[in-house]
Amino acid sequence: MASESPGIGKHYLRYSSANILVLLAGLVSFPIMTRLLDNTQYGILGYYDTWVLMAVAIAKLGAQHSILRFYPHGGDSTAVRAFATNLFYLPLLVSLVLWVLTGTGIVVTDWFVGATQSPVFWMAMLMIPAMVYSSLVETVLRATERSRTVMFTRIAWRYLQLLLMVGAVVAIQHTALVAYAGKLVSALLGIAFYVFWAHRNLGFSRQALDPGSLKQSMAFGMPLVATEMLSVALVSVDRLMLKGLSGDFAVVGIYSIGAGLAMQVHMFMNLTVFESFTPMANRLFVTENAAAVRALKLKMLLPMTYAAVGISIALLCLGTDVIIALSGAGKAASGPVFAVIGATNAVLPVMLVCGYGLMLEKRTRTVFALGCTTVLLNTALNFVLIPRYGFMGASYATVASSFVAGIGHCMLVSPTLRQLPDRRTLAVAGVAAVVAAICAWGSLHLGLRPGWQRLIGAGLLIGGPYLATLLLLDPRLRAMLPMGRKAPQGTGESLAG
Known about the structure:
497 residues, mainly alpha, 16 helices
């Protein structure tokens, strides 16, 4: 199987472009779907999406990790055929058998107890094998460096889903059932190309069957599945427990709207930072030493700390206005959820950069144990806080468990890799935060209408003085601006580089 190798720069540009366009599709669909679906219907959609994500993570059996690790680069057609047979088709077959057995068990159980699953449930069940198949094919495309194909298919699939889901809800009925039907149709249409591509490029051979390869694949991939499940569980447990403890899909919908939008903050703050930071930190750790990693952290933490503090203040003050502007006044109840979780997602990357290093030290068991602790703490806090505070209780549990995770990374990493922001950065950020808080208090007396008017007016009133204070008190930040940059004063790597 031939693979394209255009260079890492083009790969990065293609993947980042695809992810940005996918995020834009989410920003388009979010206000439309939240306006067309009431809290109950939106809650149903989020509830079943949560179960599908968890089911798919398990159903892949870790094959996606094994595909990336064991693809026979440079191998002949026989090696590629053996790879496709044992690490692509065989895991798919096992996954399909498990899916059929699970579905049959549900049907039989329902028949005996006289229960009936909703149509949305069965659509979600049909979605699982489609998502597993598409995920494994995309992993093969990534392993063979076909970033152009991944880019186009990812964008096309996301916008097809946007068109069919929104179109179905607008044209037929404002319900989760119709929305999920559009999503399922888009999935089936999307995998049509993947089926065609796999048929041409991934051959199956009975003679190449080797159950030992599948065993090796699962031994390699399943521990990573456990870690992936922890990440899914941390995102999902709040919605599941809200439904279980309240019995009201409307409450789940209110929380899902706010938490879903806060996830966009996570995408922009956390993922973007670590996609840039992790490779450089790994290289410095291997080629130089831990001190070089700490120096890189210190350079990153200067602008990161200022940005995180400013964004968190803005979200705490204006989070509800963002929801009203995007989704209308009827969804204002989701504003506090977005405010507190979004502010947490803005600050958390700073803590994770400070404590980054457990993976460098190959302490993966510690990372897994910390993930388990975070999920268990979140679950325990939900039991206590949801009955008392409702959907905001779930928000507080998410905030608390996230901060415990960040602090845990900082405490458990070796002191040779731990690096906090310097005292000057913390002091300047504190002063600027006080200035922003005073301006936020003053904006309450301007009589601005909630939504776009307050978002723009109060946003400028809060953000302008905050940024001005930073630039006034910290010449290092002024030097990072295009007009303030000077010639490098040393041989070290600059943040811009």
